[in-house]
Design goal:
Blueprint: E1 3-4, E2 20-25, H1 29-40, E3 45-51, H2 54-64, E4 68-71, H3 80-89, E5 97-102, H4 107-116, E6 120-123, H5 128-139, E7 144-145, H6 151-158, H7 166-171, H8 177-187, H9 192-199, H10 203-217, H11 222-231
Parallel strand pairs: 2-3, 2-4, 4-5, 5-6, 6-7
Antiparallel strand pairs: 1-3
Helix pairs in contact: 2-3, 3-4, 4-6, 8-10, 8-11, 9-10
Length: 245
C-alpha cells in the first residue's frame, strides 16, 4: 500500500529552502518503518512517501517528485529494476535519483541497476550512518556503489558494449582530451578530490570538467557517466587498473 507522508518543512544547511525529500520503496513494511524512522530523525532529510511495489513507487515518484527514491529490487508485481528504468526514463523526473538498497548485491543486479539509470547501489547490511550518507551523496549528484559492487563489477559488466547506444559513442567526439581523461578517472571510482590530487588541479576544476562532460553526454549523474564510459570503451584501457598511475 502506498503511503504519503506530509512534508515536515524543515530547513537545513545543505539546501536552505527545504530538506531532502525521499520516497521509500520496499515490500517489507517493517523495513520501511525502520528506514523512515532513521531518515526522519535527521535535520536535512524527510520521507515524503512509501510504496510496497514498483508500480506504486513509480506513481508516487511522479506525484511527489522526491530528491531520492530508495528502491528495493525484489518486490511483487513490478520489480525495482523495472521501476527504476521507468523513473529514470521520465524527463519530468530528471531531478529524482534512485538509490538501490537490496539484499542481493550480485554482479548482474549491479549492472542492470546502473543500466536502468540508478545513481547508487548498496546492501541492506549498511549501517545507519551509511544509509544517511548514501542518501545525501546521491542527492548531490554523485554515484555510489557499495564495497561489494565497485570497480571490478563495473569493469566486468559495463565494459561489454552490448547496450552501447551509438549516440553515446558519437557524443564522445565532443569531449576535449582533458574531459575524456577526467571521465575515465571517474569511471575507476575516484572522487573529485582524488582526481584533483592525481592531476595536480583543484577539485573545482575537476568538477567543472566532469559537469561539462555530463552535459555533452546527456548523463543524468555520475553513475550514468560511469556506465557510458565503460559501454563506449572510453574507460576500457583502465579496466584492469582501478588506481591508474
Amino acid at each position: 500500500m502506498t503511503r504519503d507522508v506530509a512534508d515536515h518543512g524543515q530547513h537545513d544547511d545543505r539546501e536552505a529552502e527545504r530538506p531532502l525529500r525521499v520516497v521509500l520503496a520496499d515490500d517489507q513494511a517493517l523495513l520501511r518503518d525502520a528506514f523512515r524512522t532513521l531518515l526522519d530523525s535527521t535535520d536535512d532529510i524527510t520521507v515524503v512517501g512509501e510504496a510496497g511495489d514498483g508500480e506504486e513507487a513509480v506513481e508516487l515518484t511522479r506525484r511527489t517528485h522526491p530528491d531520492v527514491v530508495v528502491m528495493d529490487i525484489q518486490m511483487p508485481g513490478m520489480d525495482g529494476l523495472t521501476a527504476t528504468s521507468q523513473i529514470c526514463a521520465d524527463p519530468d523526473l530528471r531531478a529524482s535519483r534512485v538509490l538501490i538498497l537490496t539484499t542481493y548485491e550480485t554482479d548482474e543486479y549491479v549492472a542492470q541497476a546502473l543500466r536502468a539509470g540508478a545513481s547508487g547501489f548498496i546492501g541492506k547490511g549498511i549501517d545507519a550512518d551509511g544509509l544517511i550518507d548514501a542518501v545525501r551523496t546521491i542527492a548531490d549528484g554523485d554515484a555510489l556503489l557499495s564495497p561489494a559492487a565497485t570497480r571490478s563489477l563495473v569493469t566486468r559488466f559495463l565494459a561489454t558494449p552490448v547496450d552501447t547506444a551509438p549516440r553515446d559513442v558519437e557524443r564522445l567526439v565532443a569531449l576535449t582530451p582533458r574531459e575524456r581523461e577526467m571521465v575515465a578517472l571517474v569511471a575507476t571510482g575516484l572522487s573529485n578530490l582524488e582526481i584533483a590530487d592525481r592531476m595536480y588541479v583543484s577539485p573545482f576544476t575537476v568538477r567543472a570538467h566532469v559537469q561539462r562532460a555530463m552535459t555533452k553526454l546527456e548523463a543524468r549523474d555520475r553513475a550514468q557517466l560511469v556506465a557510458i564510459a565503460y559501454q563506449t570503451g572510453l574507460a576500457r584501457g583502465l579496466a584492469g587498473d582501478p588506481d591508474p598511475g
